[in-house]
Specification:
Structural class: mainly alpha
Number of strands: 2
Radius of gyration: 19 Å
Helix content: over 70%
Low-confidence stretches: none
Mean pLDDT: 92
Number of domains: 2
Largest sheet: 2 strands, antiparallel
Length: about 260
């Protein structure tokens, strides 16, 4: 590694640690509004880590993951079922029939930035650094695509067990979250294998989180009504078939290369 790379990495590491300590661990109060304070702290806590992991991914062979090449635009249509899963995670029917309410519409813009930063950090780690490490470690394995998806999705899923250490947690909900994050992780990792572009994964992840957590962050009551589950299960099954079929093709192509 170049000396300049070592210096930049060290400085970004210090920045990332300081941002996390000051804005997450110490929970410094920046604004009187509790919702604004919570989301701004979350954004600032992740900002340094995003710079760090983005830089590490860039210098460790992941530069190509940030580039939109001709193949990306040709294959973009492949990702439409993934976007479908992300968009149907929004509680349309619950908001329409009044069983759920968004009462902080003034903070939707800030919430959008917050969900972007959460998704960006997680994608840089799980579909960036860990993805490249898994691919490199398994490059001589006949089933590299399949095993890469399983490993990255499993690590992404287990990572969400850290939510158990938050206050007032619902253990059943956390374990349900671990299950569906494995499925989302498998979808996003397959997307990386297919399109080789991390920005697309960040956008899909952001849209999914935006709809799935908007009531929790800006509203009240349950977003999960009957129509929500019908759309979620139907869309999930369709997308799962698409992902499994694509992953089998990718795996067979790698075996016969």
């Amino acid at each position: 590694m170049k000396k300049s790379h070592i210096i930049i990495t060290t400085l970004l590491f210090i920045l990332g640690v300081l941002c996390f300590i000051f804005f997450d661990a110490l929970k410094i109060r920046l604004f009187a509004d509790d919702d604004v304070n919570r989301m701004v702290r979350a954004i600032l806590a992740r900002s340094g880590l995003i710079l760090l992991f983005g830089w590490l991914l860039f210098i460790c062979g992941g530069k190509r993951l940030f580039i939109f090449d001709k193949q990306f635009f040709r294959l973009f249509i492949w990702s439409l079922p993934c976007f479908m899963v992300a968009f149907i995670n929004f509680p349309y029917s619950a908001l329409a029939n009044g069983t759920a309410t968004i009462f902080r519409t003034d903070l939707i813009w800030l919430y959008a930035i917050y969900t972007l930063f959460v998704a960006m950090l997680e994608e840089l780690i799980f579909r960036g650094i860990l993805y490249l490490l898994a691919k490199d470690y398994l490059k001589n394995n006949r089933h590299m695509p399949l095993l890469t998806v399983v490993i990255c999705a499993a690590l992404f899923s287990v990572f969400h067990l850290t939510n158990l250490f938050g206050g007032n947690v619902n253990v059943g909900y956390i374990f349900l979250q671990v299950l569906y994050t494995f499925l989302i992780g498998a979808m996003l990792t397959t997307t990386m294998l297919k399109l080789n572009n991390i920005w697309l994964c960040i956008v899909i992840h952001t849209i999914f989180n935006f709809g799935g957590q908007i009531i929790e962050n800006l509203g009240m009551n349950s977003p999960w009504d009957r129509l929500f589950w019908i759309l979620t299960i139907s869309g999930g099954v369709l997308c799962a078939g698409h992902i499994i079929y694509s992953l089998i093709k990718l795996d067979k192509a790698y075996v016969s290369r």
